[in-house]
């Protein structure tokens, strides 16, 4: 028998611990059936006992008490015999290389009466009466023969040692404990809760098509359900079944922007568009010709030029049509419900400034966000940044991630983040100065001003250093 760190790897009755957890059936979809499945593997049997019309003294009695009271009860109960299997019956049996069993029961005769004692009480009684316990029990050494007598070592010979000392490994780390833990986890891992059908509603056709593709893919990779993900079963690979389906709802009450396109009737109607169209068709044929052969360096350059001119001609035709027909385009339509309130933008909040740096807007001055970004650009243009900060700011405003900037500039992401924080602090400081000069001391309260003797500019008094009792210096802080 191998005994190592309280593990037992040998076989009992032709079975080892590993045999009980091999090839567990994960297709069973409820804990009750899994319990029955494990009981069959362990060989658990149910035995029924029935006792009727028995006399007892009370609910608490033992073999030594006298029965003075009669209580007539009818008891019907079920006894389940655990581990009706040779392996599990013997694996936890505690044995030792000793003639006396520490877990045994010993019968002694005292004053003509037979008394039952446990091991400790029996040893104490023998010591008190100066009796050899082995001779009293009349234990015969089974290994005694003509060659000699077996010498007892009094060592623990249990397959799994349950009564441990400080030098033994704990039971929970043994392979037997882990085997039972795996079987327990197998029972508990199943989800018995009824799954509710969930409906995912999409207003976007693109998102709906993506959800349908994902559902079709999941149906292909669900081996435990025969290709069906809408079931209550799970598998040992950790696949989580999705009990939901997608539903596309046509959007209502939305604004559709009418695209202006050049149609064949416009080409016939307007000669200038006809001229553009002929040139466009020539470039289109040239691009198609270059697309079906191996190109040299000069031809690749020509192909890029043709593609660029195709896009430019298409935009020019649209602009010409707009200039001739002058269609009505609303410059200030009513804002949709849910549009952001830019009044809550706080330029003294670092998180607001960071997100504002990533926004790119056009030149529509009737758009609030465009005006905000333009003011931000004016503030940035007045700030002196280092060369590294300028490069980081340009990449950051193009919506590049910190990891991308770090790899491109060969700087750690932490250093990039620190530089961005410094940039934001400079922007907030510049905005604060601009806010004081152009708004606060003009619209809120009257400010005090002084003319710099060096640069000749009229500035707020706070832009000058104090000069003791005389008041302030004649030149500003920037000219010092």
- Low-pLDDT residue intervals, each spanning 5 or more residues: 50-78, 224-240
> Main beta sheet, described?
2 strands, antiparallel
Calculate the terminal CA-CA distance, rounded to whole Å: 92 Å
> What count of domains describes the coordinates?
5
Q: State the shape.
A: elongated
Count of alpha/pi helices? 14
* Percentage of residues assigned to helices: 25-40%
Structural class category: alpha+beta
Q: Strands of the largest sheet, in order across it?
A: 1-2
Query: How many beta-strand segments?
Result: 8
Nearest-integer average pLDDT: 77
Run of helices and strands: HEEHEEHHHEHEHHHHHHHHEE
In what range is the share of β-strand residues?
5-15%
As a whole number of angstroms, the C-alpha radius of gyration is 46 Å
Produce a short descriptive summary.
The protein is an alpha+beta fold and 480 residues long. It has helices at residues 31-42, 86-91, 119-128, 133-137, 175-188, 205-220, 264-269, 271-290, 297-325, 350-357, 368-381, 387-397, 402-409, 413-444, and strands spanning 45-56, 71-81, 106-110, 113-117, 198-202, 244-248, 449-451, 458-460.
